[in-house]
Amino acid sequence: MLRTKGVLLRRVGRVQEAVEAYAEAIAVFRAVGARRSEARAKNSLAVAMFVLERFEDAIAVGLSSISIDLAIGGRFQIAKTLSNIGHAYAKLGDMPRSLAYMRRAREAHERYDDHDARADTLLCSAGILLEAGDVDAARALSADASALIAVTGSVYDMIHERNVRGLLARARGDIQGAISNASEARQLAESQGLMSYHAYATAIEAASRVDAGEVHTGVLLARTALGAVEASSSEYGIEVRDLCCAALQKGAPASAADAYHRAAAHVRAVAGYIRDARLRALFLERTVVRRILAAEAEGPAAGHDPLRRGEMA
């Protein structure tokens, strides 16, 4: 019950409350020796830490969950946990390790015939490959996920898929395609109360509408998405800020400098959570991070166009 409560709280954006519910569940399971349940709760806690953008902690808790599963001879959610770890390494900027974990996650889904979160693993892999600049590989994995979602009918995965397709469309210069996919994702996420996906979709749509010349609508959407991630935690907090600041820079330049200042402060706060010096350095080298920090340093004249080919976020 406590773990389920945590999942529901996390999905609607009440992440700190979710962390408390997971921590309580872990303590209870450990006290009664329910190792499998403890591993599941730790996996859920790792996801919550990921949403809080405490990526190093998410990795540590995820690895602890896997160690318990292996110790008891279980394979429950190992693929999903490997995927979460790989995604966290991507957020830290360690692409080789991220891609290695994502490959292991996809292999685990196949090896154990584990369908839980399989589409999510494919879509996360696609997003990471897109950031790494491999648009073709990202498109292939996204297509695999789309085929799977057509069978499962998962609305949660469908929203994720539309966001990834929106990013892919932006990468190949298809602005109308980006608007269409992001708008659909935004509306679906709103109907499901999925805060992180809603904010990300809104940011993608905002930047795309400004690019298409729909400046007023794009700026309104950008301010909405910025307000959402500044009020609550999101694993896409940095990406949303990047897209929204770009939209404001083009559509409402008078307010862009302050938005970049707040975005840079957030980036530095996330960097402060990273204890490992190597990972902190890699994080600060992420293209999306460098763009925000450089734009703040350059002042109001700074501008960029994120998620174009050759300049992946």
From TrEMBL:
TPR repeat extents: 79-112
Pfam families in the cross-refs: TPR_12
PROSITE patterns: TPR
Keywords per UniProt: TPR repeat
Gene3D superfamilies (UniProt xref): Tetratricopeptide repeat domain
Protein name: Uncharacterized protein
Biological source species: Sorangium cellulosum (Polyangium cellulosum)
